[in-house]
Amino acid sequence: MNKLLWLLLPLFADAVEWRSWAAGTAEAAQRGRNILAALVRDDCHYCHDMERAVFDDAEMSRWVEGCFVPVKINLSKRDVPFEARVPMSPTFIILNPEGRVIKTVPGSWNREDFTALTEAACTKE
Questions:
Q1: How many structural domains are present in the chain?
Q2: The domain spanning residue 30 has which CATH number?
Q3: Between the CA of residue 15 and those of 22, 30, 47, 96, 98, what are the distances in Å?
Q4: What is the pLDDT of residues 99-117, one digit of tens each?
Q5: Would you say the pTM of this structure is higher than 0.90?
Q6: Which phi and psi angles does 36 have, rounded to 5°?
Q7: Distance (Å, rounded) from C-alpha 7 to C-alpha 25?
């Protein structure tokens, strides 16, 4: 079993490394970086499609992690831990390091459109 894990690890190495809400907010405060919160649900095929097509891409992963502290919140398992309207899943909410909502991006997007919709909130170090 352990050998299989090591063989499969490279398949997941280029994906965005999502943080929990607690870890993400602490990191954002420490680094002074905006949070990209992905609000998803277990039964959302658009969420799964976007994960594969956008966030599992190495170039996109570098861009997201270079601009934001990425946090994933599964609405099938917990409520939104901040004040926000979530019209659908997936919904992406960008918050400043203090937790104030800057922008809401509802829906599923391709890499180019998602980058264009979020790049104004990018906080590179």
A1: 1
A2: 3.40.30.10
A3: 20, 23, 14, 23, 26
A4: 999 999 999 999 999 999 9
A5: no
A6: -105, 105
A7: 32
